Amino acid sequence: MSRRLLWEDDVIKVIDNHTNDDNTLDNDISCILEEVDSGWIKCVPGQMPEDDKRYKGRKVINVLVTTANGEVTKVQRMYSNYSDKWYWGRIHGENKAWMPLPESYKEN
User: What pLDDT score does 43 carry?
Assistant: First the structure.
């Protein structure tokens, strides 16, 4: 199955059509939204990039992050031999979630 982007206005329209008078979502749309995988992984212990088997053995991991102020940016997660800890490189503020970088563009 291929992945495709959805237009925000279209998603909002569908959700509005499935919102009850008390501002809760009807069962149909709630079930669908629970199954949608955004690809974002919450930044919590045990779910950090270094915990992902795709990056086993790496000391530098490039990922996308969503920051506390809602920005999305590419950043590195790096391991310091000196402090024996992982840290985020060149980013200010708290990161809320991360995801692997997408595949690079390739000409057909």
Answer: 92
